[in-house]
């Protein structure tokens, strides 16, 4: 069984990206912004460019993003058991840059070089190693870098599919082959043909999702599988999307009146803010596959759970216990709060507004976005539009983590990209 606490530590660790002072300029005829333009800070890729570098892996020049960027001078650091860059963050960077309206030659170069890194990290079994050491050696031994069906392999799929429209022919052919090979693995290895469930704390959860009941990881899988299906129209991919989505529906708890008000649990009987992209992924899957049940489930979370959090204050996580026809919360935590916990909700709210045109979703997205501009427990802006930095989070009342790593930076820029009206690929 995968150590979820270790994965959470990994998520907090994997955090640094590309940079140079250059605003993310939207075209004049861009899509409607999901929040009033005056309230949405401009998008600045300066810190992203600061974190971008090029190195060699197995003799090929590739692009990477540094995981850690530490205040006050934002120099880079390395995690001694893992490495200095990782597929998890590089794939995110590819998605972000691929959402750039009309990427120029510089951005296209970065997308290609970052894609080449991801390609080099694919193992012989079709899955991906995650971390790279500073000497260009792939970390093949540590548990958060094993080539297996895990977060980094799923994130790699999203990055590769996002990059495809922007790659030169030879690199695009490699990326298609790598993505197709990974999807074949997922089709083989996820037990979606079974209808297995297990009971945890009085709650029935599915066992055919990534990491058995990982609806959080399942949402990342969907974000890669959806463009793969749009490209290939492969019936097996469509079936896989459908079954992962159905498993995610089972993970929804509560309703308008009952706690947790339509939240999709993350894993087993736990909800955590980080990686909570279930509603966002279900909205996108529902639209592509014509699954109204997916859309309705996602809208329940946006309609009821997000306003609940906005009313009581953000939460980091909680554990559910079934109680009669309802649920009670145990081990509720308010901190840490990180960009990776806020951005999935903004992505879901903006997608809900994009699909329905209903102004309440635009309003929810705008209210969630104020977390980045100072309406938070620290009473401090988390995003600095002058530098492009997104702080690594809020530790407690009035206390921030002043570092600005890749995960925080990219996830914050994901949210701003959506708020400015540009959907992610």
Automatic annotation (TrEMBL):
Protein name in the entry: Glycosyl hydrolase
GO biological processes: carbohydrate metabolic process
Signal sequence bounds: 1-25
Key word Glycoprotein present: no
InterPro entries (alphabetical): 6-hairpin_glycosidase_sf
Keywords (A to Z) from UniProt: Signal
Organism in which the protein naturally occurs: Sphingomonas hengshuiensis
UniProt keyword annotation of Signal present: yes
């Amino acid at each position: 069984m995968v150590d979820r606490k270790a994965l959470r530590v990994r998520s907090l660790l994997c955090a640094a990206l590309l940079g140079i002072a250059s605003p993310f300029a939207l075209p004049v005829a861009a899509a409607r912004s999901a929040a009033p333009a005056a309230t949405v800070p401009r998008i600045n890729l300066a810190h992203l460019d600061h974190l971008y570098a090029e190195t060699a892996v197995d003799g090929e020049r590739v692009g990477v993003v540094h995981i850690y960027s530490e205040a006050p001078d934002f120099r880079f650091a390395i995690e001694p058991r893992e490495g200095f860059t990782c597929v998890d963050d590089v794939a995110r960077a590819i998605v972000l840059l691929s959402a750039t309206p009309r990427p120029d030659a510089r951005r296209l170069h970065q997308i290609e070089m970052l894609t080449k890194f991801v390609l080099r990290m694919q193992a012989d079994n079709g899955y991906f190693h995650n971390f790279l050491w500073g000497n260009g050696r792939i970390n093949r031994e540590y548990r958060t870098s094993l080539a297996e069906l895990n977060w980094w392999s799923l994130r790699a799929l999203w990055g590769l599919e996002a990059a495809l429209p922007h790659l030169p022919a030879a690199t695009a052919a490699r990326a298609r082959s790598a993505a197709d090979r990974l999807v074949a693995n997922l089709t083989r290895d996820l037990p979606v043909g079974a209808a297995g469930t297990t009971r945890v704390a009085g709650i029935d959860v599915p066992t055919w999702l990534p990491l058995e009941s990982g609806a959080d990881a399942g949402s990342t899988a969907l974000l890669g599988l959806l463009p793969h299906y749009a490209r290939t129209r492969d019936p097996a991919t469509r079936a896989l999307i459908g079954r992962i989505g159905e498993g995610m529906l089972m993970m929804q708890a509560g309703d308008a009146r009952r706690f947790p008000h339509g939240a999709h649990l993350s894993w087993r009987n736990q909800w955590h803010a980080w990686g909570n992209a279930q509603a966002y992924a279900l909205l996108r899957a529902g639209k592509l596959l014509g699954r109204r049940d997916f859309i309705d489930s996602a809208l329940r979370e946006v309609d009821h759970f997000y306003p609940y959090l906005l009313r009581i204050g953000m939460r980091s996580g909680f554990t559910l216990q079934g109680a009669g026809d309802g649920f009670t919360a145990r081990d509720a935590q308010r901190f840490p709060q990180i960009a990776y916990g806020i951005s999935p909700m903004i992505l879901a709210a903006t997608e809900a507004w994009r699909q329905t045109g209903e102004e309440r979703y635009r309003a929810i997205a705008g209210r969630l976005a104020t977390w980045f501009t100072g309406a938070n427990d620290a009473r401090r802006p988390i995003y600095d539009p002058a530098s492009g930095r997104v702080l690594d989070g809020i530790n407690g009342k009035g206390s921030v983590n002043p570092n600005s790593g890749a995960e925080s930076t990219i996830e914050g820029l994901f949210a701003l990209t959506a708020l400015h009206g540009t959907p992610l690929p």
